[in-house]
Amino acid sequence: MRVPGLVVTCALVAFGGLGGCGQASTDPTPAPPAGAEPAAQDAAPSDAPPGMVWIPAGRFRMGAVGGEARSDEGPVHEVEVSGFWMDATEVTNREFARFVDATAYVTVAERAPTLDEIMAQLPPGTAPPPEEDLVAASLLFIPPNQPVPLGDPSRWWAWAPGTDWRHPEGPSSSLDGRDDHPVVHVCWDDAVAYASWAGKRLPTEAEWERAARGGTDDAPYVWGETPVDEADPQANLWQGSFPHVNTTADGFMRTAPVGSFAPNDYGLHDMAGNVWEWCADWYRADTYAARTDPVVVDPTGPVSSLDPDEPWAPKRVERGGSFLCHASYCSSYRPSARMPGSPDTGASHLGFRCVLSEAERPGR
Ligand SMILES: [Ca+2]
If you measure from the C-alpha of residue 142 to the centroid of ligand 1, how many angstroms do you get, rounded to a whole number? Predict the structure, then answer.
């Protein structure tokens, strides 16, 4: 667990060991001057696959420093990304159900973890949990009814048996009325399985950020320069006092049907808020610091992960923030914000969308 409560590993919530929270960077270094060529706006090479939009090839400034940025978002650096197709929305329950119906796939949250899987997420030397605790479960957001210390995410996250994509708010909940909501409680492995079935893949972290920015490189938000409007929010976020009071000024306590908010300039909905989205890359806090080329072309991320707060646990990148994000606690709805997540852990606020290069389309 690294950043204020938005993703913690199931093992840490279930079996203890939650650590401290990440802090915003105080690095005052300004972003480099705008020296890049304007992003080339290449046209879509063919008719769009259903539900996808074309993200044109181009160069952009990846990352952010200062202000709300955390240290892993810098340094800002030039990245060039080839054009690609991206799902206009997060993958919905309706779409995920089609995959499960076709393949009989069972998500990780629907399987009891092994002791080895749990121990791999815990700090070395942690005592093994009792065998009866090794049950199928997922991380469920349960808002407390009073203010709680923000340094202790276990006050609003529960390791909840019977919680999975079909039961997003616990075993007694269902998908009724949620067909068009993003699927949640899917881990990275589940997302990869879906993408493979769909003939797509998860975006690289660079593709995701390039797409989220919508061609507006240095704007702090996917909708531009304007801060979050608490009275008329630009995305499905948290309004009120996190984590105990949500005024739902945006209309949604938890997930919203995909596409409920205006798209960015590339036609992508919910690149801020609603649910976090898995990326293909391994997470490292120093990914950007290790990049030395003047322009990094189509980066695919580091070869292995390192989350300094949980160095024993492999992590993949998540992007975009969720319905739990509030400026008082975590402004991860910014397009540069990064989050490490255990690839075998799903949660109430974690989903994904897919991408596809033109050359990867069947028959190309
Ligand atoms: Ca909301």
Answer: 14
pLDDT 10s digit of each residue in the chain, 364 long? 322 233 344 444 544 333 222 333 333 334 434 444 444 468 899 999 999 999 999 999 999 999 999 999 999 999 999 999 999 999 999 999 999 999 999 999 999 999 998 888 889 999 999 988 899 999 999 999 999 999 999 999 999 999 999 999 999 999 999 999 999 999 999 999 999 999 999 999 999 999 999 998 889 999 999 999 999 999 999 999 999 999 999 999 999 999 999 999 999 999 999 999 999 999 999 999 999 999 999 999 999 999 999 999 999 999 999 999 999 888 999 999 999 999 999 999 999 999 999 999 987 8
How many C-beta atoms surround the C-beta of residue 266 within 10 A?
Answer: 19
Query: What pTM was estimated for this model as a whole?
Result: 0.90
* Surrounding residues of ion ligand 1, Cβ less than 5 A: 236, 250, 252, 323
Q: How far is the CA of 185 from the centre of ligand 1 (A)?
A: 18
Q: Count the Cβ atoms, other than its own, within 10 Å of residue 300.
A: 12
Homologous superfamily of the 1-364 domain (CATH): paralog of FGE (formylglycine-generating enzyme) (3.90.1580.10)
